Amino acid sequence: LCAPGIQAAGAETPGSQLILPVQKISVDLETGIVSRAGERGLCLETVSRAGPHKLVVRRDPGDDFPAVTVNGIHQDWVAATSGRARMGALRLARDGSLAALRTWKTGDKQTELLQDGRIALSWKRDTAAKLLRYTTDAVLLLERKATGPWHLNTYRRTEDGGILSEARTLVDFGDCAPGRLRIAGDTLWAQLDCGEGSGSGIYKIDLK
After folding, report:
1. Is 75 in contact with 66 (CB distance < 8 Å)?
2. Predicted local distance difference test score (pLDDT) of residue 123
3. Which tens digits make up the pLDDT trace of 86-110?
4. In angstroms, what CA-CA distances link 56 with 38, 68, 88, 182, 200?
5. pLDDT 10s digits, 21-71
6. Is pLDDT of 15 > 90?
7. What are 3-8's contacts with CB under 8 Å, separation 24+?
């Protein structure tokens, strides 16, 4: 969230403060400083917690790459491993490890799952992947090969924190294209577009 140009329904403006109650964000309208979960800055992209660990992602004006910290420690690998690639959203697990998808714009244009800066999984250019959840037990990814349906796959994590390369499919979406997805515990809420006719809508799917 960058301060300039903020507009939001339901925002409150007591004095020189813009308060967004739902997001728990306040903005000093005189300085442009954004405050969120104890963090302050001109441009806070993410402030999140997983157990005792805290992830902060900020990108100040003029920065080529975001500044990422976990528990106040800079994660320099995020900028170092970006280069000519597109980095996806960062996910923090309760063990303090950090994961993100990296898709190369050049070369083989493969997609890789990075775990604390190291390649844990990779897919060829004909496969699309989206990181949905990263925990101490497993990684949940939405995957689709160029000629196949979308799958929700899970990859187990080992006791030492590694990620096994074999996937287990939790949901085969068949002819439907998933839109917005929300995972709550062992339940998946999925907005599905199944084309013309019946089948499209919002579905509650048990992941057990």
Report:
1. no
2. 94
3. 888 899 999 999 999 999 888 888 9
4. 10, 6, 15, 22, 37
5. 767 778 888 877 888 777 887 788 888 899 999 999 988 777 778 889 999
6. no
7. 3/27, 3/32, 3/33, 3/34, 3/42, 3/43, 4/32
Could you tell me which of 91, 79, 166, 158 has the C-alpha nearest to residue 121?
166
Give a three-class secondary structure readout of the chain: CECCCCCCCCCECCCCEEEECCCCEEEECCCCCEEECCEEECEEEEEEEECCEEEEEECCCCCCCCEEEECCEECCHHHHCCCCEEECCCEECCCCCEEEEEEECCCCCCEEEEECCEEEEEECCCEEEEEEEECCCEEEEEEEECCCCEEEEEEEECCCCCEEEEEEEEEECCCCEEEEEEEECCEEEEEEECCCCCCCEEEEEECC
- Work out the mean pLDDT of the chain and round it to a whole number: 86
Note the pTM of the prediction, 2 decimals.
0.81
Rounded average pLDDT over 154-163? 96
Kindly report the number of other CB atoms within 10 A of residue 135's CB atom: 16
